[in-house]
Design brief:
- The protein is mainly beta.
- 31% of the residues are buried.
Length: 177
């Protein structure tokens, strides 16, 4: 299913951490809040996530696309992706791994189970905390305006910016005033 979110997953701890680009991720439950990421077992970050049983999903923006791509084509076994990309660590709150400071939303997760599916293993995780860039909060509307962040997505080998709003939930059945 495309387009998919292009996210940076952080793993490890304050002393030693890595960044991994993931497009196969999504919400799987509301209560408790849960999501998944799918990772190939041969990836460097796979062992880190499996060992620590935690990770953070960091949403990416247009300004982060180059860094997002670099984290998907370079291995953390061969380089320091933080240094390579110029991204900044933000200390984890509910988990040990850092978040990406440039991300508008970082979702801290604890792995509940791992499902081997073939080419990828699915890490099913419970959300333990959400870190949000307060600059997207509009006090006048009391609303978090994530759409202002310029979220990035991935579709068949290319990165895209989020498009224009087409409607809101329920607009198709809402009565006109």
């Amino acid at each position: 299913v495309y387009p998919a979110p292009a996210v940076l997953v952080t793993c490890g701890n304050a002393e030693s951490s890595n960044l991994l680009t993931v497009a196969w991720t999504g919400t799987i439950c509301t209560n408790p809040a849960m999501l998944y990421i799918s990772v190939r077992p041969e990836r460097h970050s796979y062992g880190i996530i499996k060992s620590n049983m935690q990770f953070t999903v960091n949403l990416t923006t247009e300004s982060m696309v180059r860094a997002t791509d670099l984290c998907g084509v370079r291995s953390g076994a061969d380089c320091d992706k933080w240094e390579l990309t110029g991204l900044h660590k933000y200390p984890g709150v509910g988990v040990q791994c850092p978040a990406v400071a440039e991300s508008p939303i970082s979702i801290e997760c604890r792995v509940k189970s791992i499902l081997s599916l073939g080419s990828h293993d699915m890490f099913i995780a419970e959300v333990v905390d959400v870190l949000a860039d307060e600059s997207y909060f509009n006090p006048e509307t009391d609303r978090f305006e994530l759409e202002r962040s310029g979220l990035a997505s991935y579709s068949h080998g290319a990165y895209f910016a989020q498009g224009a709003q087409l409607g809101t939930f329920g607009f198709s059945v809402r009565k006109k005033s």
